[in-house]
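agent> Task received from the user: take the single chain below, predict its 3D structure, and emit structure tokens. No templates, no multimer pairing.
agent> Plan: (1) validate residues, (2) run structure prediction, (3) serialize to tokens, (4) report one or two observations.
agent> Step 1 OK, no nonstandard residues flagged.
tool_call: predict_structure(input=
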Amino acid sequence: MTTKISDIIACIEQMAPLAYQESWDNSGVQVGDVSQEVRAVLLCVDITEATLDEAIERGANLIISHHPLIFKGIKKLTGRNYIERVIIKAIQHNIVLYSAHTNMDKCLGGVNFRIAQKLGLNNIRVLAPEENYLSKIVTFVPQSHIEQVRQAMWLAGAGTIGAYDCCSYSSEGNGTFRAQVGCNPFVGEIGKLHTEPELRLEMIVPKDKLGRVVAAIHSAHPYEEPAIDILPLSNNYEQLGLGCVGDLENPITETEMLNYIKEKLGVQYIRHTKTSDKLVSRVALCGGSGAEFIPYAIREKAGIYITADVKYHDFFNTENQIVIADIGHFESEECIKEVFYEQLSKNFINFAILKAVCDKSPVLCSYRSEY
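)
tool_result: status=success, residues=371
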């Protein structure tokens, strides 16, 4: 049985739907025809000319990266920079370029959860839960079909609250309607006002599943035109968001924590605020550029916050409330290759899944940090 590149992409997006990504992001297919059969997949953080050459050499016709190659619109393809040269060469060699960026940052089991696991944290949870992602969907169902519609909504992804699924609420009432000429009403007669005992059925649904749930209602509901209300909620979606926070099983000092990070994450250099012998028991983190979430880490009473791309003045703004550890952008997200590899290897066995060897940080350090 052959596997198409579109099958690989569907597997990644099952874990990290594109609906998760930030509005400014450009995750998804960047270049190429996804209907072709996959030969091999190369996994990387960044797509560069060296990465593309490695894919060609190793026989891969799909590159899955964390960072999108294309962020802004491209008006010309003349090869004037590495982005244009990679696009041209990828097209010439029929290689598909695909990226899963902030959608993979936000999902359960993604970049941040993997860092937390590598650090051995317990009670791992999202640091900055997603806002404005949930809706309440309400429909009105005759009593004879309430279970049929309820089950269909659950199967489509509605009714999950935290660690509980199959959540719903229903209340009794009466619906009124009058079918116009040309209608085919389930109950009632054309041109006559009808009153029907109904149940108001309501559930919580995340944005990425909303379309499927609406379709499920239409499919399972006996009415020709079921009434459906979609109400945006201000509740945070605790199962989705940026960053993580968790607890160490055995607290260690701030200074020891920096060496622990280097050991567990394979980091050579760390930019950090002043440390002491104060014990760290709670750790907050955000892969990539996460300085904006320093207040979230302080709110969670974390002893240290691990991230990247921290600006000079951000180190001052902590007021000695927390240790800031900047481990580098690439270094904080390199574990994405492990995440990609595990997601694909547990679902496919008929092609090679390769981690890019040439995938390196473009930022070089020639100093040694002393603690």
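agent> Step 4: summary for the user.
Residues 178 and 193 are 5 Å apart (CA to CA).
agent> Done.
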